[in-house]
Amino acid sequence: MDAWDILRGFPTITAAQFYDALSYYYDHKDEIEEFIEANERAYDDLLTEADEVKAENQTVLEKLLL
Predict the structure, then answer these.
(1) pLDDT score for 21
(2) What would you report as the CA-atom Rg of the chain, rounded to the nearest whole angstrom?
(3) Rounded CA gap, 59 and 28, in Å?
(4) Are the C-beta atoms of residues 36 and 44 closer than 8 Å to each other?
(5) What is the pLDDT of residue 65?
(6) pLDDT digit string (tens) for 18-36?
């Protein structure tokens, strides 16, 4: 896949905007990757918390139904 293939998928941006975005990414790659990783960790933490709450709620529900 080349740049023109990608651009066809985003008809509202110009080639200049696409290359500006690539340039920005490569100039700030470490910062962007750290941001993505932090968000992935936060997402995983939320999933873990949701599973814990679900388990607690299941326990409460079981006690109520006894």
Answers:
(1) 95
(2) 22
(3) 47
(4) no
(5) 83
(6) 999 999 999 999 999 999 9
